[in-house]
Design goal:
The complex is a heterodimer of chains A (203) and B (167).
Chain A lengths: L1 H21 L9 E2 L6 E7 L4 H19 L4 E7 L8 H13 L3 H10 L1 H7 L2 H5 L5 H13 L3 H13 L7 E6 L2 E6 L4 H13 L2
Parallel strand pairs in A: 2-3
Antiparallel strand pairs in A: 1-3, 2-4, 4-5
Chain B lengths: L8 H26 L9 H13 L6 H24 L3 H25 L16 H25 L7 H4 L1
Classes of the chains: A alpha+beta (203), B mainly alpha (167).
Chain lengths: 203, 167
C-alpha cells in the first residue's frame, strides 16, 4: 500500500514536471535549448533587428544558458517575431532558421545580434553569417533560404505570438506548473534569476 | 456661502480624487500581490519577483533598489488606497499619494522619451508603455495634486456641518 502510494506520488510529480513543456506547442528542436522536462519553459519572441532583443541576448542569455538551461532547470525556446517596422528582420530570421536546420543556430544567432548595427544599414545578412559558417554550410543555408520554405515556420511562431498578444519584442512567455507569465521587455540577469528561483521553488 | 456648502467644487474634486485614486491604488497593489490574471494563482513570492522584473525594466534602480520597491510598493499602494477611501488624516496620505504619482509620471515620461520598449508594470496585465500610459499617469498625478491642494485649502474652512458654521 505504501509502495503504491509512493509510486503514485512519483508519477504525479513527474506529470507536473512534464506539464510545463507539454503546454507549449510547435517546438522546433533546432531552436530550443535545454531539457524538455525542465520545470520552467521560456519562449522568447525575438526580432533580430530589434535593439532591445540584442540587449537581452548579450546581457542576459549567456548567464541564463550557463546557470539554468544547461543544468536542466529551464527549457529555452527561440520564437521568431519579425516586426514589419524592421526592413531586414525577416531576412535575418530566414537565415537563422536555415542555420538551425543544419545545427548551426547558435553561432548564426550570435553573429546576427553582435553585428546588428552593421547589417541593418544595408541588409547584408548573407555577408554577416559568412564569418561563422564553413563554405559547405553556407551553401546549404543559402539553398534553404532560396527554397522559400522557411517562412511557414516563421509565420507559425508569429501567429503563436499573436495568440499570446505579443505586440513588442522581446517578449518572454514563462510556463511553469500550468501557469503562463507573459513579460514584454528586457530583463537583467540578477532580477530574472530571482524570478526563476521563485518559480522553481513553487510546490 | 460657497465655502460652507458640502458640494462646492473643491470638495467634489477631493471626493473624486479619493474614490478614483483610492480605488486604483487598491487594485494596483492587489493585482501585483496576487496576479489575478495568472491561473492557477501563483504564491506571493512569485508575484512580487515578477513585479520586480517590471520595476527593473525602467533601468532606474540597482538590483537592491528594485527589490525594495517591488517588495514594498504593492502593499503601500493597498494601504494608501484604503486610507484615501477612509479619509482619516487625509492631507498626510494625499501628500504621499501625490508624491508617488508624480514619481510614477516622471518615470513613465523618461522611459517613453528614451524609447524603452518596456511593460508599464502599473497593473498585473502586460501593458506596453505608450503615449496613452503617459497621459493616464499625467491625469492621475494632476488629480492627486489638485486633491491635495484642495484638501489643505478646505481644512482652513469651517466644516459645512459643524455647529459654528450652522450658527
Amino acid at each position: 500500500m505504501v509502495t503504491l502510494l509512493g509510486l503514485s506520488f512519483v508519477l504525479l510529480a513527474q506529470a507536473r514536471v512534464a506539464q510545463s513543456s507539454s503546454a507549449v506547442s510547435d517546438i522546433d528542436p533546432h531552436t530550443a535549448f535545454g531539457s524538455k522536462t525542465a520545470p520552467v519553459v521560456m519562449e522568447i519572441f525575438s526580432d533580430f533587428q530589434c535593439p532591445a532583443c540584442k540587449t537581452l541576448y548579450t546581457a542576459t542569455n549567456g548567464k541564463l544558458m550557463d546557470n539554468y538551461v544547461n543544468v536542466g532547470k529551464v527549457y529555452l525556446i527561440h520564437r521568431d517575431f519579425p516586426l514589419t517596422m524592421h526592413a531586414y528582420s525577416r531576412v535575418a530570421a530566414r537565415y537563422a532558421r536555415a542555420a538551425a536546420q543544419i545545427g548551426k543556430f547558435e553561432p548564426v544567432e550570435q553573429v546576427l545580434f553582435q553585428n546588428q548595427e552593421k547589417w541593418e544599414q544595408n541588409g547584408d545578412v548573407d555577408g554577416t553569417v559568412v564569418s561563422v559558417l564553413s563554405a559547405a554550410d553556407l551553401a546549404k543555408v543559402r539553398a534553404l533560404v532560396k527554397g522559400g520554405t522557411l517562412d511557414a515556420a516563421i509565420d507559425k511562431d508569429f501567429a503563436l505570438g499573436q495568440m499570446y498578444r505579443v505586440n513588442q519584442t522581446p517578449t518572454t512567455v514563462f510556463h511553469c506548473k500550468g501557469q503562463t507569465y507573459p513579460y514584454p521587455g528586457v530583463m537583467s540577469y540578477e532580477i530574472l534569476k530571482q524570478f526563476l528561483d521563485q518559480l522553481l521553488s513553487q510546490r | 456661502m460657497m465655502e460652507s456648502s458640502p458640494f462646492n467644487l473643491r470638495r467634489v474634486i477631493i471626493w473624486i480624487g479619493r474614490l478614483v485614486l483610492g480605488g486604483i491604488f487598491i487594485y494596483a497593489g492587489y493585482s501585483k500581490i496576487f496576479l489575478p490574471i495568472i491561473h492557477p494563482h501563483p504564491p506571493i513570492g512569485v508575484a512580487l519577483s515578477f513585479f520586480a522584473m517590471q520595476v527593473d525594466s525602467y533601468q532606474l534602480l540597482p538590483p537592491r533598489g528594485v527589490n525594495f520597491v517591488a517588495h514594498t510598493l504593492p502593499f503601500a499602494e493597498v494601504v494608501l488606497g484604503l486610507l484615501l477611501l477612509i479619509g482619516w488624516r487625509l492631507r498626510i496620505w494625499a501628500v504621499i499619494v501625490t508624491l508617488i504619482m508624480v514619481g510614477f509620471f516622471a518615470a513613465v515620461v523618461r522611459s517613453y522619451a528614451l524609447g524603452l520598449q518596456i511593460n508599464c508594470g502599473c497593473f498585473a496585465n502586460p501593458e506596453p508603455l505608450t503615449i496613452k500610459t503617459v497621459f493616464r499617469d499625467g491625469s492621475l498625478a494632476a488629480l492627486a495634486l489638485l486633491m491635495t491642494i484642495f484638501a489643505f485649502f478646505e481644512a482652513r474652512q469651517p466644516h459645512p456641518w459643524s455647529p459654528t458654521n450652522q450658527a
